[in-house]
Amino acid sequence: MEMTEKRIKEWENRQRMAYKKGKLSLIQVQKLREAGFRLEPIKTSVQHKCELFDLAKEGSPKPKTGSSLRSQFKNYTNPNNGCYDKEFHQKIMSLRPDWFIDTAKIRKDKLLEMAKNGDVRPPYGTDLGNALCRYTSKIQNAKDPLFTKEIKRMRPDWFKDTVKENKLKIIEMARSGKEKPLRGKHPMGRPLLCYASDRHASTFDQSFRDKIMELRPDWFRKEYPE
Fold first, then answer.
1. What is the mean pLDDT of residues 56-84?
2. Is there a domain that residue 209 lies in?
3. Residue 140 lies in a domain
4. Same domain (yes/no): 78, 28
5. Structural domain boundaries enclosing 152
6. How much is the pTM?
7. Which of 61, 99, 104, 179 is deepest in the core (most CB within 10 A)?
8. 86 in the same domain as 50
């Protein structure tokens, strides 16, 4: 009985997902509603395009990555997409050419230039540092294998395991009585957070946290306010 109910629930969820993606015919939608399904009205492509035009005319930034409008924007302006609208593409490009700048290429070119010039790796938390992680991490959708191969060839030192080195630096800071490094203000701020404060981080190290707490309990007082 429980298995039957579970399968029915899964089927219902699949129908709702198909409805949201516009994969159901009008007859299928009508039958689902007659069966008691609550299906919220879905915005049409015309409504999406009007919203995008309004944002463009207002001078607003391009919809954020991951948002529904960003996905629709990509669908309507990608010639390889079945939803491509040439007229919409041309009009919105004339309104907001800045929405079509390839910022990923600009960042990659800048990173390659830094690597070539012998600059230090941009720290995580900065625009370029975060971009470097996105383009080279195996778990990121934005990973670029060709870019990764080239930049690792140019600067293998950018990709060495710095965990041990960072922990030694933090321990030295703690022993020498320096102020707690804060994320966004000191290069060791984020490593300290990842290794000793954020228990959900894959890099959390309880023994390292115990060591730092022994040396500098004042660094952790704000975690436990009175």
1. 87
2. yes
3. yes
4. no
5. 103-159
6. 0.51
7. 99
8. yes
In a domain, 40, yes or no: no
Structural domains of the chain, count: 4
Q: Domain check: are 13 and 50 in the same one? A: no
> Residue 212: exposed, middle, or buried by beta-carbon count in 10 A (0-12, 13-18, 19+)?
buried
Burial (CB count within 10 angstroms: exposed 0-12, middle 13-18, buried 19+), residue 42: exposed
